Amino acid sequence: QVRVVESGGGLVPAGGSLTLSCAASEHTVEIGNMGWYRRAPGKDREFVARIVWSSGAAVVADSVKGRFTASRDIAKNTGYLQMNNLKTEDTAMYYCNVAYDLVSSSWGQGTQVTVSS
Fold this sequence. Notes:
Elements: E1 4-7, E2 10-13, E3 18-24, E4 31-39, E5 46-52, E6 58-60, E7 68-73, E8 78-83, E9 92-100, E10 104-107, E11 111-116
Parallel strand pairs: 2-11
Antiparallel strand pairs: 1-3, 3-8, 4-5, 4-9, 5-6, 7-8, 9-10, 9-11
């Protein structure tokens, strides 16, 4: 089982930026992709972004397009979610999901992002 740890959340004013990190503990597994999701209070979990580990190709949700960017550092087994021009509606718990070895996946514990008006 791969342990996944997110970090980088915090309180930021609207228009500000944050970079979330997602570190996968095992270097012996083959990571397929890393996904970012969020859940705001009272709402369902929402897809935010996904990056293909080998190529670096990434997709983001329409709600964050042009503001959020997913990237990864293969050597560090770590992915990043760069969030710019944050809005109050971006306030949520952000989770990372790592898909590996074709059929397995692990979730992190989440990191809270709060955007103040």
